[in-house]
């Protein structure tokens, strides 16, 4: 059966079935936005735009777009202006009663546009915008609460991060250069952006969630920033308050387990081929750390609970990110040099030393070189060894800085981690 077109032009075609499907979608969009707006209004208060109003606004945009194909496209402009006037008048009336806020007025304007875009066939885009609009509308109180807690320093940090990400990174050369032809300025810039971004994310999560959810959650989010920082802070805390040694061990083991997740993230971004044989060994290391932390967390104790906060420091530490970028470049050159001069043995030695300070840089560097400068198997062994070497740092900090009880917890917990690491090494090679 031949389809009947309601509109059939060179640029746009619409069947009756398409018309009714899009009409139903537009009605659903209006219902969703209207329900949220009416539900958000105070009880017994006259609602400027509720369920029915928003349905009609979306349908108005839908029909205006339809009629613009039959008459003139200027109808869309006229319809948009009329909705803007309607929203402006409603805002003026509300402001006379001391109710300042234009969210609903702009939501009405957005609803009109969504009706038009739905008619034009941009279904996925319309639904995506609807979801974003609903999320933003429903998060009024949480967002206002967060904004009230943001300091000027944190806001400035966000601005700096956006400027660097959108203005500086794109202009960096996207070509390899330098010794061994392995340095790419744009890749190094991307690494710096990722590092500072993860640090900034960890800072925000720690500020709004860390202290309130207890020491376990603080360790998890602290691990996003630096598991070494977590180890240092809680090792000192255990010495200051010995009764909290078990809780501090939980935070250190949890943060160190998060480090394994970061290794997976870097491999996913830079070289997914490495994940194959490493998935099981790293999963064993992760489960060993999490298992030990969970055991200590659930173990009965007469010691009081603690909701410890890590020192937040700077929200966006660009110096640290830049240093990491230089460290990444240096490790890239070091590994390349060691590989060319000493072969596979040199890669293991240089990577093990580099991992004592940071696991991220060596993971990224090796991931990038794997398959070119040396084999995938060599890279997998290097990453696993580097992960265990980096864990040695946390053990050293805990033993040297922490209480005697913390040392016992850490040695038992990380002892299990090392056993799983050795098992993983055997799995990879045998």
TrEMBL record:
Q: Which residue windows are transmembrane per the record?
A: 19-35, 47-67, 73-93, 100-119, 125-143, 155-173, 188-206, 215-235, 247-266, 278-297, 317-335, 347-367, 373-397, 409-428
All copies of domain MgtC/SapB/SrpB/YhiD N-terminal, residue ranges:
23-145
Residue ranges that the Swiss-Prot or TrEMBL entry lists as coiled coil:
none
List residues of the DUF4010 domain: 193-402
User: Which Pfam family, giving just one, matches this sequence?
Assistant: MgtC
Keyword check for RNA-binding, yes or no. no
Q: What is this protein called?
A: MgtC/SapB family protein
Q: What is the lineage of its organism?
A: Bacteria, Pseudomonadati, Bacteroidota, Cytophagia, Cytophagales
């Amino acid at each position: 059966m031949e389809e009947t077109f309601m509109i059939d032009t060179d640029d746009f075609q619409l069947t009756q079935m398409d018309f009714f499907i899009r009409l139903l979608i537009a009605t659903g969009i209006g219902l969703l936005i209207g329900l949220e707006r009416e539900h958000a209004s105070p009880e017994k208060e006259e609602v400027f735009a509720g369920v029915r109003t928003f349905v009609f606004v979306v349908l108005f945009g839908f029909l205006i777009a339809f009629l613009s194909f039959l008459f003139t496209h200027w109808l869309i402009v006229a319809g948009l202006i009329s909705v803007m006037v309607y929203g402006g008048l409603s805002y003026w009336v509300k402001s006379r009663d001391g109710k300042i806020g234009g969210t609903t007025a702009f939501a009405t304007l957005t609803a009109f546009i969504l009706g038009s875009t739905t008619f034009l066939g941009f279904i996925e885009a319309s639904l995506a915008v609807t979801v974003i609009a609903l999320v933003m509308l429903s998060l009024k109180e949480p967002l206002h609460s967060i904004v009230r807690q943001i300091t000027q320093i944190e806001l400035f940090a966000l601005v700096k991060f956006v400027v660097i990400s959108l203005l500086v990174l794109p202009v960096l050369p996207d070509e390899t250069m330098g010794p061994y032809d392995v340095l790419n300025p744009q890749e190094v810039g991307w690494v710096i952006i990722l590092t500072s971004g993860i640090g900034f994310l960890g800072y925000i999560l720690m500020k709004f969630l860390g202290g309130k959810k207890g020491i376990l959650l603080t360790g998890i989010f602290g691990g996003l920033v630096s598991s070494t920082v977590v180890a240092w802070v809680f090792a000192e805390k255990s010495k200051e308050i010995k009764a909290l040694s078990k809780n501090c061990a939980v935070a250190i083991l949890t943060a160190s387990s998060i480090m394994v997740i970061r290794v997976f993230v870097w491999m996913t971004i830079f070289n997914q081929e490495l994940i194959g044989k490493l998935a099981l060994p790293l999963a064993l290391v992760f489960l060993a750390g999490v298992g030990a932390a969970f055991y200590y967390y659930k173990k009965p104790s007469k010691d009081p609970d603690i909701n410890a906060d890590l020192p937040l420091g700077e929200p966006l530490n660009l110096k640290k990110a830049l240093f990491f970028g230089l460290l990444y470049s240096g490790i890239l050159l070091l590994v390349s040099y060691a590989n060319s001069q000493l072969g596979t043995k040199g890669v293991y030695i240089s990577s093990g030393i580099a991992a004592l300070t940071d696991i991220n840089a060596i993971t990224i560097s090796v991931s990038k070189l794997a398959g070119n400068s040396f084999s995938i198997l060599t890279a997998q062994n290097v990453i696993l060894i580097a992960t265990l070497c980096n864990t040695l740092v946390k053990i050293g900090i805990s033993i040297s800085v922490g209480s005697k009880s913390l040392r016992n917890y850490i040695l038992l917990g990380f002892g299990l981690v090392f056993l799983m690491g050795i098992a993983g090494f055997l799995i990879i090679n045998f």
